[in-house]
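Re: that backbone. Tokens:
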């Protein structure tokens, strides 16, 4: 080995040393592609109003990011598509009949308050879209709890009917729920289309199966333990935002643990809280608050589940 080769062999550089072709833009693009089936389904089921809400939400999210970046004199990075993903997810959490300004407020709150005030992408401590939903529910509960079915008629969601004591006979058929021909938020009604998107994310290895599978499984088990009738269990799984939350929001890289043990604990916590809120709480749905609460717990979970550094003193 001559001197030049020796110098190259002994060259030292800072971490990270593992190279990957993944980038934020590629990951976000995969998430957008995964949401396309549910997006098309929402427009098919709810019409032009759904498309308007989605477009307004995306535009507001992107515009809010440009505005706050300029205000803070930071580089504008809308090309990473993260704001687009947030905008779509916010729209997915809105009723089809929500006014357009609800989408604007939600997007602004998600991008500016939850994301950028805490340092931007990768620094937020909770999922921006879910935090925006929680803020909207707290601020305009009537608007956020008024849903229309696919015929444009105001109707209660299946979970609201169950919460009110209705039995299986009063609920829509499971086939309608699976397809999405029911009332609810734009992006949560079609289990079929959401599962197609979730499968895409798993195949592309954008997300790990542990969080969505364990989350949904834990929710089902705890619901049974809490006395939910087995005939209603499938309605709990297909109804509400469980599938949307499990595949598209609980798996958020920034706000969920990165260790295997951490992911398992996180998913179990989400499932436990979701079931408790649905059965013992005052609301028919519990996905948003469950994920947000576990987002807050993520730093503690990672603290106790991170692997020990070689040579570290206990």
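Recovered sequence:
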């Amino acid at each position: 080995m001559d001197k030049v080769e020796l110098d190259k062999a002994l060259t030292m550089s800072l971490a990270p040393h593992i190279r990957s072709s993944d980038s934020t833009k590629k990951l976000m693009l995969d998430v957008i592609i995964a949401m396309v089936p549910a997006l098309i389904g929402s427009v098919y089921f709810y019409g032009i109003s759904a498309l308007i809400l989605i477009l307004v939400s995306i535009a507001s999210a992107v515009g809010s990011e440009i505005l706050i970046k300029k205000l803070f004199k930071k580089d504008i990075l809308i090309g990473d598509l993260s704001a687009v993903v947030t905008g779509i997810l916010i729209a997915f959490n809105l009723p089809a009949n929500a006014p357009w300004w609800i989408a604007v407020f939600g997007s602004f709150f998600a991008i500016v308050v939850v994301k950028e005030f805490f340092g931007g992408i990768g620094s937020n401590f909770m999922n921006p879209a879910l935090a925006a939903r929680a803020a909207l529910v707290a601020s305009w509960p009537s608007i956020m709890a008024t849903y229309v079915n696919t015929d444009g008629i105001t109707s209660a969601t299946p979970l609201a009917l169950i919460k009110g004591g209705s039995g299986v006979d009063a609920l829509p058929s499971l086939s309608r729920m699976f397809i999405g021909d029911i009332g609810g938020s734009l992006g949560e009604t079609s289990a079929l289309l959401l599962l197609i998107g979730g499968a895409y994310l798993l195949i592309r290895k954008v997300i790990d199966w542990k969080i969505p599978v364990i989350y949904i499984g834990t929710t089902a088990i705890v619901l049974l333990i809490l006395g939910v009738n087995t005939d209603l269990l499938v309605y709990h799984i297909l109804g509400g935002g469980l599938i949307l939350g499990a595949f598209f929001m609980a798996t958020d890289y920034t706000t969920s643990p990165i260790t295997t043990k951490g992911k398992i604990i996180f998913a179990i916590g989400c499932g436990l809280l979701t079931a408790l809120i649905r059965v013992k709480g005052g609301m028919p749905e519990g996905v948003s608050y469950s994920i947000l609460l576990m987002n807050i717990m993520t730093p503690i979970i990672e603290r106790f589940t991170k692997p020990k550094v070689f040579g570290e003193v206990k």
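The radius of gyration is 21 Å. Residues 25-305 form a domain with the Ammonium transporter fold fold (CATH 1.10.3430).
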